[in-house]
Amino acid sequence: MFESQVLSDSIIKEKEIKKINTLLNKSIYSQHERVALACHILFNSGHDSCLSGQITAKVEDDLYITQTLGWGFDEVTVSNLLTVDSNLDVIEGDGIPNPANRFHSWIYNLRPDVNCILHTHAQYTSALSMLGIPLEISHMDCCILYDDVAYLEQWPGVPISNSEGDIISSALGDKNALLLGHHGLITVGRSIEEATCLALVFEKAAKLQLLALSAGEIKKIDFSLGIEAREWLKLDARISATFNYYVRRVLS
Length: 252
Fold this sequence. Notes:
252 residues, alpha+beta, L-fuculose-1-phosphate Aldolase, eight-stranded mixed beta sheet, 8 helices, globular, disordered N terminus
């Protein structure tokens, strides 16, 4: 009876995954539009820190879309985005990119699976970065980041040179998120949607961690259940649907 139930659960999960992948819509927006929308989503979700923070999205090898230096996330539009190469030379658009984007090229070079990189100084993440402790993933809503967050405790300084690129990309390793001590967060993704959703969850996890620590000790969740939840939450269709939800909020 127990074996039959396990098999039944397995079939149920398989069917649900197929339904999600079939029924949830993919994005109808161009790559430039998705970059601009991601910036506004982040701004509306507590990732505003004046002119700090960057986004890059790979167009092809050695070419990335990014925002113009001097424009906040809430000001980004398709028309003021730039296309730059790995040396931050402008290929298309007016203005200059943020020189702190240099470390992005190091990550892209080491991680061919990555097509979008986000760096923000979100409020709760920034507060957590001052405590000298890693991000703790211990709530089901945040399990998309379970066992997938690296930690760089020692602040390497303003990341505008090759040395910081080497340090940051090495600290990230094969993870998809990184907490930078005394600084902020980095998330990477196979898509703009994934990197954005990971950044949103990262900030939520930091907020929950600070709230939980104010009340007591955080209890860890079971490793196997955490991994199972991560793979469920990282389904492309779920990520696409989540991103589209935030798009609707931005555009409403």
